[in-house]
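Risk register update: the risk of archive-format incompatibility is retired. Evidence:
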Amino acid sequence: MIQNLKNSMKRSKYLRLLLVVPMVVLFLYCSVTLVNQSADISRMQKQKQTLTAQLASVQQENARLEEVVGADNKDDYIEQKAREKGYVKRRRDRVLRHFRYGINRTNTRGQQSG
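Archived output:
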């Protein structure tokens, strides 16, 4: 009888151990997952703020460019940008345009070449 009682106590210890260990492992797994998810959320919120700022900047630039395209002084803007990139040179107060690709240039005889 005492032997049976000892065996049953050993069995109950093993059963408790078999229940407690998986619960502890599950708790640790959930904790680590929660911490990782929290870090990911924080990183993505920072990324969202950065992208929102970039979007606002690009939208402002887009609005400015749309104004330039719709404006009457489009040629002045194009000339300014060409000067910045080195495609336009001044010689004797005359503007000479140098394009990378020959687009609608007039040759010496007055005929347009492609």
